[in-house]
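Lab notes, practical 5.
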Amino acid sequence: MDARAGANHSRVLTTMRISEIYASIHGESQYAGLPCTLVRTTGCDLRCSYCDTTYAFHGGRDMTLDQIVAEVERLGQPFVLLTGGEPMLQPDIAVLARRLLDGGRRVAIETSGAHAVDQLPVEVFRILDAKTPSSGESQRMNWKAFEGLRPCDAVKFVIADEVDYQWSVEKIAGLGLAGSTEVLFSPVHGRLDAKTLISWVVRDRLPVRLNLQLHKYIWGADAKGV
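Output from the prediction step:
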C-alpha cells in the first residue's frame, strides 16, 4: 500500500457519516425524558415498514471524531444517545463511544438488533430493537446479540397489531428476557392505540414497560431535530 492509499484508509476510519446532532430529551426507552444529546448517524441496512427516520437513510455529512466530540461538548449534555439510521454500521462507533465516555459522559445506543454489539465499551447502555413481523425485517435479527443483556440495557418491541404482540410475548420467553433486562413495548404511532396495547399487557400480566415516543406527543409526529 502506498502512502496515499494509507492516508485515505486512515481518513475513512476516522470519519463518520452524520445526519444530525442536537440537544433534546430521550424520546423513548427506559431513559425517556432525560436530557441528552442525540448523535444520529446516516445509513441503515433495514427497511422497516414503520420506520420514522427514513431521512437518515441517505445524505448527512462526513464529520471527524474530533468534530463530533467537539459538538457534543458544545451542547453540554451529560448523557449522549447514539442512534440512526443504524449506528452499528459506522466502523468507528465503538471508538466514538469510548471517547465520549472518557470525556465524562454517559452513553446509550439504539440499534436494530441485526448487528453484534460486543465491540462496544461495556459502559454503553444497549437498547436493541427486536423487529416484529409487521416491520418486514424480523428475519434479519441476530439473536446472539440479545444474549447477556443487563438491567441497564433494554430490548424494544415495536408493535403494530396483535400478531406482533403475541410474537413478542413468545420472544420474551424464548430469549429469557424477563427479569434480566428492561423489556419495552412500543405501539406504532398512529397504527396501534396505546390503550389497546396496555389492555393486552395488563390482561396477560406481562413484566414489560410501556414505551411511548414522548417527542411525538410534545412536538408532533413529523418534527425533526427535537
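Observations recorded by the TA: Residues 13-219 form a domain with the TIM Barrel fold (CATH 3.20.20.70). The first helix runs from residue 3 to 13.
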